[in-house]
Amino acid sequence: MSSRVFLRPFQNTDAEVLLKWGQDDYYKQLAAFQHYDNFAQAEVAAGQYAARKYSYAVCLMQTEEIIGLVELYERGTSEKELLDTKEVGFLLDRAFEGHGYMTEALTLLFDFAFKKLQQREIWAGTFKQNLRSQKLLETLGFDYAYAVDLSQISNLFKYEEKYYVLKKARWLKDH
């Protein structure tokens, strides 16, 4: 259990922090975070995050300030894959990087995913240049699986993604 952060479902009132991240190209470049031009767009996004089943704000325990987000979403094409495999997405406000907060937040999320949701594995994709996220995933027990150069698939994409997988057995053994 983390003593510094907790996870809570997003609320419609979380638009302000989403607008802050959505207007900073740093988050778009590292994680393809959506750009928001104005508060109304961020309000819509807050409602979308709030409607997602496994999307959470990462909050500091002492102040309840939102410092990031984590979410699990469906991955797979068959019913079995959709039931026992998820993909993780995460973002940490850059003012809080380097202090272990995301490690704690993802530990809470993965304990929930493997112990309560009975997931078999969790996947994560990162942009090739996002070395900090790749190191975090490896620290948490993820193994590199493969890379995809999305520019080879469509002209709409100009980046390469690296994919990692975390198996339930490894997580439970290590935690």
Question: TL;DR?
Answer:
The chain is α+β, with helices and mostly antiparallel strands.
Explain this structure.
This protein is α+β, with helices and mostly antiparallel strands and 175 residues long. β2 and β3 form a beta hairpin. The chain starts with a strand and ends with a helix. Strands 1-2-3-4-5-7-6 form a 7-stranded mixed β-sheet, sandwiched between helices. The protein contains 7 helices and 7 strands.
Highlighted features:
alpha+beta; 175 residues; 7-stranded mixed sheet
Secondary structure layout plus pairing:
Layout: E1 5-9, H1 15-22, H2 25-31, H3 39-51, E2 55-60, E3 66-74, H4 79-84, E4 85-92, H5 101-116, E5 121-127, H6 131-139, E6 143-149, E7 160-167, H7 168-174
Parallel strand pairs: 4-5
Antiparallel strand pairs: 1-2, 2-3, 3-4, 5-7, 6-7
Helix pairs in contact: 1-3
Mean pLDDT: 92
Q: What's the number of extended β-strand segments? A: 7
| Poorly predicted segments | none
**Net shape:** globular
Strand order of the largest sheet: 1-2-3-4-5-7-6
Backbone CA Rg: 16 Å
